[in-house]
Amino acid sequence: MAAILKCKSVIGGSGWNSRFFSTSKQRLSQSYKLVVVGGGAGGCSVAAKFSSLLPKNHVAIIEPNDTHYYQPMWTMVGGGMKKLEQSGRPMSEVLPKNARWIKERASKFFPKENRLVTASGEEINYDYLVIAMGLQLDYNKIKGLPEAFNTPGVCSNYSTLYVGNTLESLKNFKEGNAIFTFPNTPVKCAGAPQKAMYISEEYLRKHNKRDKANVMFNTSLGAIFGVKKYADALEKVVKKRNIAVNFRHELVEVKPDTKEAVFRLLDDPAGATKTFKYEMLHVTPPMSSPALLRANKELTNEAGYLEIDKSTLQHVRFPNIFGIGDCTSLPTSKTAAAIAGQNKIVFDNLRFLMDGKKLSQKYDGYTSCPLVTGYSKCILAEFDYDGKPLETLPINQAKERMTSFFMKKELMPLLYWKLMLNGWWNGPSTIRKILHLGTGR
Ligand code: FAD
Ligand code: UQ1
């Protein structure tokens, strides 16, 4: 009965979706010109662009969540500069009005048959598909988590559930190690683990607890940042602020009873571990491509990411599938800023494909990481696939600046909610070209 009612309500609409038909007594099948899986930063911005191009309800977005979060704000939430509520908006308000929202989880892809099935068993057919499913957080790969988040001092800016613990841990900090971790997997916003640390370090200084704190960055990586220009700047910051950096340390266990964190020493051939006492432990979890995507070997590369061409963003085996954002194989740092650089490429190339034209737009790997170094300063890293800085402003952005901090804290959220999610922000490349006129960058 529910199925029949649903069918009626959509038949009442116009356009593509009127090709609804029942494949069995229980199961409905829907068809769309374009289906977007995921209504996060990438899915929402691409769907907005196509919804203005195509007639009403020719685009469908599959997204199960009620709330859309502006995740970059969680760094500020952790430091008490913003409230968690400010980072979320109802999904119904951010998804394009011209598109149909299928409030479900996609559960299986059949790319050879141009269809997928949702968790409720509904079949969705498409002519074109954009996959924008983000990353999965794997807290449970660390022994003792997530349970230890219910104990003093354990926090994580990466989840709405635990970001509130960060300020709480700082307020309650008495004496001991404040440890900030970086996992042995790709992560979203690779700068965010150390942003949490710089803000916390300044908090402890401001509240006269710094001399009681031993601040340390225990990272699985072998360098503080992947791009030399910004790594050099950050090395000076940690030195100046007396922060210890322990490279090739991977968090493997949290023992809340004894307030100990166990790290695997990645360069030790025998796989030895080292245990640190903590008063505060900020965890950046291991992350992976969503399990459902990883399960489909036709769509993914060996590491489980959606395998797309790094220039055109078209799938390497299925020409009518494109990808955007964190769930893809693109060899660049996974950020919302990168998505701003990708969404016009996906839009143009997919539009060209629909019109039988050549895919001529090429993504250069642009990404950006506003490396907040405290409550008023920021290093604004911007770079491409080759790790070559691609700075928007005609100043040295590797320098800690209040202007960069203001952009990160106040301007970026506006840019995101007002422009990017409506499909009107394609990254700063045009601004950069104007500001760098004559310099060839
Ligand atoms: P997401 O925005 O995560 O969206 C994925 C969507 O897919 C979700 O809505 C999810 O519900 C949906 N989905 C998942 N599985 C399914 C399924 N089976 N069916 C249907 N839908 C599904 N970026 C910056 O540019 N600058 C920053 O300063 C910055 N700081 C950050 C700080 C933190 C603490 C964090 C966590 C992130 C930060 N980022 C920053 C990174 C940025 O938020 C992400 O790169 C960006 O949100 C990725 O967008 P996405 O669309 O790929 O994934
Ligand atoms: C950006 O475009 C963007 O997406 C909206 C972000 O995400 C929040 C960013 O953090 C940054 C830095 C950019 C890049 C934009 C400019 C103006 C440098």
UniProtKB/TrEMBL annotation:
**Gene3D superfamilies (alphabetical):** FAD/NAD(P)-binding domain
Q: Where do the FAD/NAD(P)-binding domain residues begin and end?
A: 32-148
Read off the Pfam families from this record: Pyr_redox_2
Top-rank lineage group of the source organism: Eukaryota
Q: Which SUPFAM superfamilies match?
A: FAD/NAD(P)-binding domain (SSF51905)
The identity of this protein, by name, is FAD/NAD(P)-binding domain-containing protein
Provide the organism lineage as a comma list.
Eukaryota, Metazoa, Ecdysozoa, Arthropoda, Crustacea
